[in-house]
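Chapter review: from sequence to fold.
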Amino acid sequence: MRSLLFLLILLLLQSCSNNNFVIEPVRYPNEKGDTVEQTLVVYMMAENSLANYAAYDENEIKKGVAGLPAGCRVFAFVDDREFPRILQYKSGEDDILVEVVKEYETDVCSSDVAVLDETLELILENFPTRSLDLVLWSHADGWVRRDKKNSIQRSIGLDNEKNTYSNSSAIVMEMDGLANVLENLPVKVRYLIFDACFMQCIEVGYELRNSAEWIIASPAEIPANGAPYDILLPIIFDNNASPGDIINAYKDSYDNESSGVVLSAVRTSALQDFATATYGLIGKYFPTSKKRAYPDVFSYLPGGNRSSSQILPNYFDMNAIIKKYSTPDEYEAWKREFDNLVAYSTASDYWYSAFLYRRIPVKHEVYGAVSIYMPQLDNIELNTAFQYTEWYKAAGWDAAGW
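The token string follows.
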């Protein structure tokens, strides 16, 4: 969940106007545009407590579009407290043009994968591209379901269907549905960027192993301001830039702030081999008979979180877990596969947890910037939900007795 640490900053920024941004009238596409090399879609599920931050990020996108090379397109789907709309950002001679591609006359549920599918279909059908990058923007819980009664759900996105700031009774997006949408697009997603909390977990990554070339996300909570789009857009559209350049610029933007971030870029083509490398260690060191509690292991939500509406795990750091419990030779062999998977990572010295109301220091000597769920005997509800993930069998948790 994005921290509310920057709310005051946001309110101050919203009180200012920028006269260099021009919004064009509604235009429904009636013919296909030329095929371009690269397109970015920012999909904002903001019909929740983050609604105000959507406007803040829209302004950052406008700034970031200025000076982008030819052959680039930038779109945003925005569903906040108003009716949803699809916007295209263009850099003109004097102004940044914001063109309303579609304005919905009624509300839709942005966290319904069918709406995401329809949005991407509209954009790709009318504005063809050879390469697609996608940002998914909202609250998130990683692999964990939002509703305790629905153990199948692995969630990103909250849509309360009331056009309010509330997070209660919200609909969320499931990872298997997301994977199905992305795998069936006419163009492969290059960067799948989660501007949301807890999404860089091995359970989500494995579920989306065929959905994108790279998954860029955080295993921890991120600040409410999220990604600095004005800084990141030129890097995303730079053919010479790497995923590491993206996450480093993201992290550097918070170096002088009162919060920080942990980020990584996962190479999805390495996920299958990585699951194989992990399988033997799970059965050897983490069967039910071990009854481990994992004291003092670095995690991204120490102690987890329990409330009337949800239960969240510790989100243990995967590298820290394997390093602590395997032999040096086993760890060295496993770490080679891990480094191929997590090709880039970065971290501030700490990040702020809105759940725990405090800053949490990063253990730079052990962090790997990807979290893992570790079943424990007293976590019956989470253990049951965990069984619905594809990672559960692929990594050998079922064979370990869980």
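Two observations follow directly from the output. The CA atoms of residues 17 and 352 lie 29 Å apart. The first strand starts at residue 21 and ends at 24.
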